[in-house]
Amino acid sequence: MAVEARSAVRSRRVATRHRTAAFRAERVARPSSSVKRTQAAPHAIENAEVARIFREIADLLEIQDANAFRIRAYRNAARTVEELSDAAARIAREDPARLTQLPGIGKGLAGKIAEICETGTLGTLTELQREAPPGALELMRLPGLGPKRARFLCDTLKIHSIADLEKAAKAARIRSIRGFGVRTEQKILEELHARTGEEERFLRSVAAQYGDSYLRYMEACDDVQRVEIAGSFRRCKETVADLDILAATEAGETVVKHFVEYPEVRTVLAQGPTKASVRLKSGLQVDLRVLPPQSYGAALHYFTGSKAHNIAIRRLGQQRGLKINEYGVFRRRRRVGGAEEAGVFKAVGLPWIPPELREARGEIEAARQDELPKLIEPSDIRGDLQFHTTDSDGRDSLEGMAEAAQELGYEYIAVTDHSPALRMVRGLDAAGYRRQAKHIDKLNARLRKLTILKGAEIDILKDGSLDLAAEDLAMFDVVLVAIHSKFDLPSGEQTRRIVRALQHPGIDILAHPTGRIIGRRRAAAFDMEEVLHVAADQGVVIEINAQPERLDVDDVTARAAIARRIPLVISTDAHSVQELRFMRCGVDQARRAWAEKKHVINTRPLKQLLKMLHGERRR
Ligand code: DGT
Ligand code: ZN
Ligand code: CA
Ligand code: CA
Question: For a tag site, which of 13, 248, 330, 355 has the least CB within 10 Å?
């Protein structure tokens, strides 16, 4: 995956807050804890926040045209911190010397991490922010611009905001600037047009870190009886506009006060006796609703949404003479439920519906017929069928990845390094794959619990041919194909390209089908219906790529694939040991697609999996 990210270094700068964060899988899981723990105020800076600050510094340095090594150092440090499985804040507190042992972290950066964890911010950042021309940061993050152009626009055209830029582009003032031209001006307008109406959203995985810290802070308030995050976050949407926190309490105002006093709050947007809204330093908005315990279940249902689902449930209630709102379930004036969420469903004669399904996409119908899917669970996963090693663009060795996979309890993993077309990541050629195969055989002879499968991620070339000769494909247990370039071909041509690759007899899986990177690159335009049709026909498996900024394919497409009886695979595309934990994000996405264990091939025991892969092979 990192291929494109690396080739288009520019695009990394866009939408910093959408950056992936590696994180503790158990946190991403469901930081919903309704059990009250008593402990000291546990506020701590999240790794995501440290990474965000480092990236902003790198961006600001870039605007200044500062030393490239210095910029790189901040970016590398950002990645190191976000991939840590421990909280940097805890390390800084308990064992600061350990910080300097992390890759790319010297004394200077370790001190900066400590400063952020202690004060919540960094002097260097404040200084750089003061020096930067107003608006430059916002401008440089627009795809197609970048630091040099952003600075140039600020300095010469006095463009200091996206609104200024739009005005200038519409007045055709951009094209006449040297080094910009008509094409750039058009791109800017297209980008701005595509954005209108699109609110800024956070990756769920990033919001999870901020949310988890906030929850622990809320739990430390003695008056809070239950607290959790509802909204799109609980429905496991890949991105969230904000976090919606609910708290059960008899002392509403005290809890609201505690909420707005959270040290990470930048602005209090609204505050009343039962609710408040704040914006965190990270830019994330968090809403709070407090309710008495007897309303908590009804409120949890209401604020989990989606809105369309709520409306449908309320209508069912009305048909039974019930009034359902965030305070409870009522028959005339009498409360008949609301303390527990399940009670809301029970009142309308339904079983509890998992939040991931609550999108008014047939879940109420299914519940009524007792046909709700038995959704796939993280523990159903037996292996990972896409990851990279130092043999191509991974950051850890095959041994390291295998060890980590064993620790995760996996039965098998397939190493799927890149093919030669991807030169910037040192893709392997046939001889390289053969060398790797020998290495795998040796490791397999030694490993007791885990089997390493031989795999490859073969690039689909522009014309739909594959980046490795047909006869060479036979050496692999599993062959992935994927597009990594030419994302903007006309739809018809893109469709033909992908379809041609799928018709190749030696392939098994279409990896990250659309190539989207949330917040940075739109999905490639092609006829998905046609691609699914061919995949079904050819017995090709469709991948849900678990990288939190990919989650490709999306929930709707994955569900359409299931409907066509296309098997799915959930793979992490890990480029480091830490990223193997992204599996959880992929499972969440699969659950939103109504996927059951039986729909996902990497829930199968190894023997069955191999039989499937080899048996259906038309090689
Ligand atoms: P987001 O924040 O855009 O990622 O998505 P949500 O679903 O978290 O939306 P949000 O934060 O505006 O509202 C949280 C939940 O509150 C929403 O899922 C359902 C409920 N809700 C909000 N407004 C209404 C409404 O007007 N009617 C009903 N029935 N429910 C609402
Ligand atoms: Zn890839
Ligand atoms: Ca929300
Ligand atoms: Ca909200």
Answer: 330
User: Tens digit of pLDDT for each residue in 221-270?
Assistant: 999 999 999 999 999 999 999 999 999 999 999 999 999 999 999 999 99
Q: Separation of 305 CA from ligand 1 center, angstroms?
A: 6
Residue 306 Cα: closest atom of ligand 1: 18
153 lies in the same domain as 189: yes
CA of 443 to the centre of ligand 4 (A): 50
Q: What is the DSSP string of 450-517?
A: -EEEEEEEEEBPTTS-BSS-GGGGGG-SEEEEE--S-TTS-HHHHHHHHHHHHT-TT--EE-STT--B
pLDDT for the residue numbered 20 = 38
What is the three-class DSSP state of 200? coil
The amino acid at 180: F
The string of DSSP codes covering 33-80 is B-S----S------HHHHHHHHHHHHHHHHHTT--HHHHHHHHHHHHH
DSSP 86-115: S-HHHHHHH-GGGGGGSTT--HHHHHHHHH
Residue 183 has pLDDT above 90, yes or no: no
* Residue 28 within any structural domain of the chain: no
Closest listed ligand to the CA of 387? 2
User: Could you tell me the pLDDT band of residue 277, with boundaries at 50, 70 and 90?
Assistant: very high
Range of the domain at 508: 378-618
281 and 424 assigned to the same domain? no
pTM reported for the whole predicted model: 0.84
Pair (572, 497) in one structural domain: yes
Q: How confident is the model at residue 3 (pLDDT cuts 50, 70, 90)?
A: very low
Q: In terms of domains, do 498 and 393 share one? A: yes
In this predicted structure, the answer to whether residue 59 has a pLDDT above a threshold of 70 is yes
Same-domain check for residues 359 and 477: no
Last residue of a domain, one of 131, 146, 177: 131
Q: Which pLDDT value is given to residue 129?
A: 92
Query: Which protein residue has the closest C-alpha to ligand 1 atom 16?
Result: 303
Cα dihedral sign for 8, 390, 400, 479?
A: positive
Are 148 and 114 members of one domain? no
Question: Which atom belonging to ligand 1 lies closest to the Cα atom of 244?
Answer: 11
468 and 571 in a single domain? The answer is yes
